[in-house]
Design goal:
It is a single chain. By secondary structure, the protein is α+β, with helices and mostly antiparallel strands. About 30% of the residues lie in helices and about 20% in strands. The protein is built from seven helices and five strands. The longest helix has 27 residues. It is extended and about 140 Å long. It starts with a helix and ends in a 14-residue tail after the last helix.
């Protein structure tokens, strides 16, 4: 009984399959082709070198590209320039030796005075050109204004007011004033003027193009100031807050004359060759000592710092 039923079912299944195939052939229905999707594997951060390339020197890729007919784009080495200020001091003023010490009635003082009169001809022409762009410019008022710019710039430096300092000094002067001031405390104070500030030199150079004019005015300033610099540990490195010193400075104030919104800013200082050397900076260094336990004190141990051994050296 079971065998005839099984034969009947198999025959029925074959008949059904053959009828379906005939129907698909008549309707031209095709079975879908299986679709293979690439699965992203783990990203390789190290690509192994090709076989046989180890030990060989890399060939010039530019020569390879030319041989293949590919043209390489020319790379230009460009440097950013800032036309808001000049990159230096044009025709700097040479201060006479012994300035603020020699009397104008002495022989050397008269010689210096006559030399200044000779050099003032070019300054007068530059002042005349500056007045074409700045109608309110006068040498007497400008010297006082330059002293105010100098005081405000140094007060902003001690307070680390970067926004105000950028408006008072040029882009060339800013890094020179702020370099090396990190982790330091600066105390600066303007005490008084020993002599009235005066304009001693003026130049009107151009940059990039002929009509792009800049005004550079050198102001002589003789004053009393105090300066004290402390390191990050609060120890005095240079100067004193209580003892004022006489300072003779030659300030260079610059302005972009062509720019209608330009302003006079501190551009630099002229340090004469005969100026005395600066005071040495006292640095804080760590001396190696014994390892103390929590209940011990350094003074109680009476530890003697070992002296360094003498070492021969040469320049």
């Amino acid at each position: 009984m079971a065998m005839p039923m099984r034969r009947t079912l198999v025959a029925l299944h074959r008949a059904t399959c053959s009828s379906l195939k005939n129907a698909e052939a008549s309707l031209d229905v095709r079975q879908p082709v299986p679709l293979f999707l690439p699965v992203r594997t783990k990203k390789r951060y190290f690509i192994p070198p090709a076989v046989g390339m180890t030990g060989r020197s890399e060939e010039n890729p530019e020569a390879k590209a030319r041989a293949a007919g590919i043209v390489f784009r020319q790379e230009y080495v460009e440097r950013r320039i800032n036309i808001a200020c000049t990159a230096g001091i044009f025709d700097p003023y040479i201060p006479p030796e012994g300035d603020a010490r020699l009397s104008s009635l002495s022989k050397e003082g008269l010689k210096q005075r006559t030399e200044q009169i000779r050099q003032s001809a070019a300054s007068q022409l530059a002042i005349r050109k500056i007045k074409e762009y700045d109608s309110e410019f006068t040498t007497k008022d400008f010297a006082v204004r330059a002293q105010e710019i100098f005081i405000e710039a140094h007060n902003s430096l001690t307070q680390f007011n970067k926004e105000k300092l950028h408006s008072l000094v040029t882009e060339r002067c800013y890094p020179e004033m702020t370099r090396g001031n990190r982790y330091k405390t600066i105390r600066w104070r303007f005490v008084e003027s020993l002599e009235l500030p005066k304009v001693v030199h003026a130049r009107c150079p151009d940059m990039v193009s002929k009509g792009n004019l800049y005004g550079q005015v050198t102001v002589r300033m003789h004053s009393k100031q105090t300066l004290a610099i402390y390191d990050r540990f609060g120890r005095l490195m240079l100067g004193s807050e209580e003892q004022p010193k006489d300072v003779l400075e030659y300030l260079v104030i610059e302005r972009h004359l062509v720019n209608p919104y330009g302003r006079w800013r501190l551009h630099g200082k002229i340090v004469p060759s005969w100026a005395p050397a600066k005071d040495p900076i006292i640095k804080t260094v760590m001396i190696p000592g014994p390892e103390l336990k929590p209940w011990e004190e350094f003074d109680a141990l009476k530890y003697e710092v070992p002296k360094p051994e003498a070492v021969q050296w040469n320049k």
